[in-house]
Amino acid sequence: MSNISSVNIFICDLPTVRPHKLAIPYSIPDQSPTGEFLGYMEQHPMRPAHEHLMFKADGHETLITQVFFEGDKWMETDVAEGVRDELITKLIDKGDHKVASLDFVMRKL
User: Helix (H, G, I), strand (E, B), or coil: what is residue 100?
Assistant: First the structure.
């Protein structure tokens, strides 16, 4: 595993990036052939709440990922099947803000 290194420094203040908005579940467009296809599959069009993140570090491949939040009712049936246990975190209420923690690994170039 010499081409892998752990990166554990990441600070993200979502309220600064998007004031007063946390990630919320949403529906993918379903008024099209995609919606018709989902109907045939008896599949809902919902994605669980998540945030997209991109990490860049000198000497490492860029990492683009998603983070999901524990307790979302759409987690088990995500239409995109993007949820992975290692991408789920718990938001902890700290009064005026929430915190979460996850570890990410970046590959060395």
Answer: coil
The two tokens of residue 22 are: 């946390």
β-strand partners of 27: 46
- Short-list 54, 55, 35, CA closest to 43: 35
Length of the chain equals 109
Domains contained in the chain, number: 1
- CATH number of the CATH domain containing 38: 2.60.130.10
Supply the Cα-derived Rg of the chain in whole angstroms: 17
pTM across the whole model: 0.73
pLDDT, tens digit, for every residue of 7-64?
444 545 444 444 445 678 888 888 888 888 888 888 888 999 888 888 888 898 999 9
48 C-beta neighbours (distance < 10 Å), count: 24
Domain interval for residue 75 = 4-107
Bridge-based pairing of strands 63-69 and 88-89 is parallel
